[in-house]
Design brief:
The chain is of the alpha+beta class. It has helices at 19-27, 42-46, 58-71, 86-96, 103-110, 112-121, 135-145, 171-180, 242-259, 291-300, 304-313, 348-352, 390-403, and strands at residues 8-12, 31-36, 49-52, 77-79, 129-132, 149-153, 163-165, 187-191, 197-205, 208-217, 234-236, 264-273, 276-283, 329-335, 340-346, 357-362, 369-370, 381-387, 405-409.
């Protein structure tokens, strides 16, 4: 009998980017339950059973999960994918006696200010930071520290409300916007460090950190959409020299230990400035943006989603399965059409047929309204391309994204 037979796995969050993991769990033979506030979420239709609850509402998710566990079917594991809800996952795991990170660790990972304070205590390299109490306080900090700075909500997600403060930015408006994206009404500021930004994805097994996910983030639109940080995808393998990559991995290991993650997944956002890596943030969950589901397997042949499924069920994960099996170039590029009402989408099939194109996803349909992007979640689609090396993968991805045209008209 399969080691997955008769086991039940709960996914907190059923969005489109979680769907590959949900389908993988089903293919393994697991009984899959998905909780989401939206009963029409893509992952809900792929589940055996569905629980309607907001992924961010810990109490309601706990209530419906406990009822299901008690009255319908035993839950053997809980996880999330592409949804920033490690606290909800940890709370369910603790209540039902399932494998998972401690609730206190998940809470620390959800609070950027508390996280940074912990990093300072443990000597983890991070940019200078401070809480911001008011717009006047922001003016004082900007005068003391100089610009550019980065303003962000303490407890938001997906880059919402994050802004690069430069001399032409209205600090009062920037503060109000960041504050509006914080559920607890808290804002912080940190020094903007110039240099390449890196996305990592790691699994921690008994204190050992394995980092098969390592991508250069693409910020070619940083000035076009200022003061917003609009990421335009990523490229693998990294162009950083070997010793710098190793320094990044060491820093991720140190940061994960500082957070208290000894068995679980961490997704890192880092910057290398003047040759030294710094942690911007660390998330205690699998990433979104197709990084763990598509880019990492294409790049190095490591299946982090499968590893986290096994961790969530208390099944062993072999360290050998977290080591790169090969290395090929992978590039993801996002689609940002002109704002307006979508009237036509052209070139999608042509892009799919281009050499090396591994995935094309269009997120809009005729009649949808495209707005000026304020975070990377506003993209209208994406392309992933592969090749023997990163430069060719980049050329293929950019050629494919240029082939797709989302035509809009003013609203």
């Amino acid at each position: 009998m399969s080691e997955y037979a008769e086991k039940t796995l709960l996914f907190v969050g059923g969005g489109a980017e979680a769907l590959p993991g949900i389908e993988k769990a089903r293919d393994l033979g697991l009984h899959v339950v998905v909780s989401d506030l939206n009963p029409e979420a893509p992952g809900m239709s792929a589940a055996h059973d569905r629980l309607v609850a907001s992924t961010y509402d810990v109490a309601t998710t706990l209530s419906v999960a406990k009822r299901y566990h008690r009255e319908v079917r035993r839950i053997d594991g809980v996880m999330c994918l592409a949804t920033d809800v490690p606290l909800t996952v940890a709370a369910v795991a603790a209540e039902l006696g399932l494998p998972g990170i401690p609730v206190a660790v998940a809470a620390l990972a959800m609070d950027k200010l508390a996280m940074k304070r912990q990093f300072v205590m443990d000597g983890v390299a991070i940019p200078w930071f401070a809480p911001v109490d008011s717009a006047r306080h922001l003016h004082e900090l900007a005068a003391e520290q100089g610009l550019p700075l980065v303003l962000k909500p303490v407890d938001s997600r997906g880059g919402r409300g994050v802004q690069r403060l430069t001399p032409e930015v209205d600090l009062e408006a920037a503060y109000a916007r960041a504050l509006g994206h914080s559920p607890t009404g808290r804002v912080m500021v940190e020094r903007y460090l110039p240099g390449p930004q890196i996305s990592t994805e790691s699994i921690i097994l008994d204190g050992e950190c394995y980092t098969p996910g390592f991508a250069d983030r693409n910020y070619e639109f940083i000035d076009r959409y200022a003061p917003n940080f609009i990421e335009n995808g990523g490229t693998m393998p990294s162009c950083l020299p070997g010793p710098t990559r190793e320094a990044v991995r060491d820093l991720v290991r140190q940061a994960a230990a500082s957070l208290g993650v000894t068995r679980g997944v961490v997704k890192g956002d880092l910057v290398v400035s003047a040759g030294k890596p710094y942690v911007i943030e660390l998330a205690a969950r699998l990433s979104g943006g197709w990084f763990c589901t598509h880019e990492i397997p294409l790049n190095v042949g490591v299946d982090l989603v499968l590893a986290v499924i096994r961790l969530s069920l208390g099944l062993p994960v072999a360290a050998s399965n977290l080591q790169p099996r090969y290395e090929q170039g992978v590039a993801l590029r996002l689609l940002f059409p002109q704002p307006g009402r979508v009237i036509a989408i052209e070139g999608e099939q042509a892009a799919r047929a281009m050499p090396g194109v591994a995935m094309v996803r269009i997120a809009v349909r005729p009649g949808d309204i495209v707005v000026q992007p304020t975070d990377s979640n506003a993209s209208a689609g994406m392309v992933i391309a592969v090749a023997e090396d990163r430069d060719e993968a980049t050329r293929r991805a950019e050629a494919a994204i240029r082939t797709i045209r989302v035509r809009t008209e003013p609203v």
